[in-house]
Specification:
Strand content: 35-45%
Number of domains: 1
Largest sheet: 6 strands, antiparallel
Oligomer: single chain
Strand order of the largest sheet: 3-2-11-8-7-6
Number of helices: 2
Distance between the termini: 106 Å
Order of helices and strands: HEEEEEEEEEEEEEH
Structural class: alpha+beta
Helix content: 10-25%
Amino acid sequence: MESIAKKFALAASSMLLAASAFGATTIGNTTADDVMLAAQAADTFVFTPAWNPQAGPNGDTSGFGTAFDGYGSSGAWTLLGKNEGGSSTGFGLLSGLNFTFDVGTGTSGTWTVTSSASQNVALDLVLALKAGNGAGAFLLNNLSINPGQTLSGTWHIDWFTGNNQANPDISNVTVFGRDFDGISTPVPEPGEYAMLLAGLGLIGFVARRRKAL
């Protein structure tokens, strides 16, 4: 009877240890300089457990909420790009900006921002990194990029998962922006103007023929 009780106690102890190993994700040693761009650290950061910045079609900014409103305006954030895992040579949802992301070791790597706009681009930019059951959002306030310029940076996961204080590998990366300046709608090529004028002329010709009939 005693040996059965000991076996149950040992099993319960093992379950508790396993549970602690897969415990909550906590902020750990995370700081703003875990994300760098053009040799400059992020201006500030927010860490939020149980948050996935990629949730929903437009991303989820609830993890940083109004925390960055003290930097610049409190305008709405726009989803600029998603990378759902692994390295990417280029991704972006906004014409004029393109991003790359390298997963590196899984807990640290590199990233870039490239402008294809014809003029200087300024914006507030957030790089949100999800790893384990949590994510960190790093704000680069009033970021400025010249036409054709590529800014290179690094990123690092320094939060913990479980009581063993292990740094989890990156799951996905999401980029948000606001206060855009210098990003305009692409100007049509001369050939596109010619096609547009030809189309309008054809419509006018058909309309005149119908009126004459």
